[in-house]
Amino acid sequence: MSYDVEKPDEQWRAELTPAEYAVLRQAATEPAFTGEYTDTKAKGVYSCRACGAELFTSTTKFASHCGWPSFYDPKDTDAVELVEDRSHGMVRTEVRCARCGSHLGHVFAGEGYPTPTDQRYCINSISLRLAPDEA
User: Fold this and answer.
1) How far, in whole angstroms, is CA 41 from its chain's centroid?
2) Residue 4 has what DSSP assignment?
3) Complete domains list, the chain, with CATH
4) pTM (2 d.p.)
5) Fewer Cβ close by (within 10 Å): the C or N end of the chain?
6) Which residues are catalytic?
7) pLDDT truncated to tens, each residue of the chain (135 aa)?
């Protein structure tokens, strides 16, 4: 896959903290209930921490109580890329930034949350940066 933002691995390592690099570039997962946006209710736009692409808005964020920020829909259909993930002995759908290919989290469907899409984009806080709305 070719992305609009592509950088050599050394540059990603230089621009991201070790924890950010592990999640965004190596598909690690931050520990549950530790991310800065897990319980945030601030209004604004959540962008990719690696490249700045706008990914999600606070209007689609909901309290899933799963330990990570949850959204029921991306900001734009083409903002994220969905990729089959067969790691860890299960089949899941990985969510990546469509602009730079960075790992964001996973999307799950049919869990019964009272949302318009019946989807839960379970996203690592460390993959995101919130730009709060101007009051």
Assistant:
1) 16
2) S
3) 9-132 (2.170.150.20)
4) 0.95
5) C
6) 122
7) 689 999 999 999 999 999 999 999 999 999 999 999 999 999 999 999 999 999 999 999 999 999 999 999 999 989 999 999 998 899 999 999 999 999 999 999 999 999 999 999 999 999 999 999 976
